[in-house]
Amino acid sequence: MPVPQPSWRTIVWLLLLGGSLVTGQAQTAPDLAASISRGRVLFAADCVLCHQVTGRGTPGVYPPLAGSDWLAPNRRSAIEAVVAGLNRELTVLGRAYHGQMPAQILNDAQVADVLTFVYNSWSNPGGTFTAAEVAGVRSTTGFKTFEALKKASGFQPLPHAPEGFVLSEVAHLPDFATRLASDGTGHHLYVLGQAGAVWRLDLSTHQFRQILWPSNYPGLHGAEFQTLGMTLDAQKHLWITFNQRVDSRPLVTNEVGIFRTAAFDKQGDPVQPELWFRTHYPYGIGPYNHGISDIRFGPDGQLYVSSGSRTDGGEAGTAPNLGTMGEVDITATVWRFDPKSTAPRIEIVARGIRNAYSLGWDGSGHLFTVSNGPDAHAGEEMDMVTPPVAGAEPEHHGFPFQLGDTPAGKKWYPYTPVAADGMKFVMPVLNQGPAGLLDGKPTATFSPHSSPAGLLWLGDDWPAGFRNSFLMGRFGNLIGTGNGQDSGFDLLKVTPERHPDGSWTATTTTVLSPLARPIDIHPAGRGRLFILEYTRPTDFKGQLGWLPGRILELRAVSAAR
After folding, report:
1. In this predicted model, what pLDDT tens digit does every residue of 158-186 receive, in sequence order?
2. What topology does CATH give the domain 154-556?
3. Which of 244, 431, 501, 553 is the 20 to 30 Å CA partner of 197?
4. Where are the domains of the chain?
């Protein structure tokens, strides 16, 4: 009978408990010694993979704890990093670090012990942390208590896959992520963080390697920025959209643009983002500055970008420094660019689309968008976009004058602007169900506040019953739905159909439910795709906090591995 071998974690524990790898520890009182001993075990279990057994970290990736000049003057920040995570640049021993650290699932006493161990090891300054001190700092973070953090930390069981498919978990995310990209070979994925970080996920080892940091984007230092779109071109360059609030005067501006990577690292991954396009407009009203998000290459080889609204429903707002003009010419639109241009200029191919998080083309080359609706209980829209011929005006899809298929002139808000005489609007796709309906009735297009997100066309290489349809992830509601029920948190199959009069309808069915805010869907070859879950809770009612999600794989049983 074979003798069981100790795990790597057991070996590390034994080494640390023996004390042979820890230096600089002074003589301590019994209670301090006990705290250090408990902290040593916790460090071995939760911290060594990044900060190493020796506390030296990983140069350029994870900062050293040994002999750190950051710990002593940043005691409170050290607690915050453990209980709430860390996502900002810091300098340790003269070197800048930009990686992300997730919140650790440790209670107040455990956090106190592990920090006491770190501060009394490797020639660090010493000192004692208490559970009360940790609790006081934790109460000022997003998770007010350990119980709240623990409740939000669990990943939910996978929903049942549809017949003929297998659903599996691929990897837990190191940070909140917004997009996936790849070269289509199925060997690795690029994962975009919401604040500019990009990771390479090796699909054979399920290991992440960070290839881009927020500091890598020239011209964006000094203020936070948001990255909501990413795609990979045929030459394996990444294209990434960004949004950045700039407190300029007299109006605060939303700086938006596109970066394109210009080099490759030793492993062949795209690095060195260079600014390809940039523009700006007055920052949005309240929380409605949607900015630019999705970026895709169309069948025509052109580059398409979604530009969301800066208002909820066309309101002027009351803050003079934000601009009281409602929407501007380049918001609530879809843009097109020539990717070969050295002086790119916006061409508007659609107007009146409130906030299309994703763009997608069907098998016949028709461009569809899926869009988030306003706080009013209007439906979320799927729109079919027909780019204009040269010199013609783009079609208008209604926002903010008309939402969904409601009667012309219906005012969702007292401030809903009145359309000019003669304005014509393209109606969105009418959802005939059975899924994603409003009160069980056909609607244009999905139930309110369900937040359509990722969009992927399934072609002839998919099993019958799925081919020639879109899969669409619905992120899920962020406000109440009016009926007390959750909306979204699922994956729908959407099969569009065009009618002789030019209108479109769609048949929709639920594929997976519930999911934890599925924000993107990415193909991985024949009968295989990846689903990016933004966070972990699978409903809104629970009001759980947010922690980074995971990547799932949906694969047809007949698909080759």
Report:
1. 999 999 999 999 999 988 999 999 998 88
2. Neuraminidase (2.120.10)
3. 553
4. 8-152, 154-556
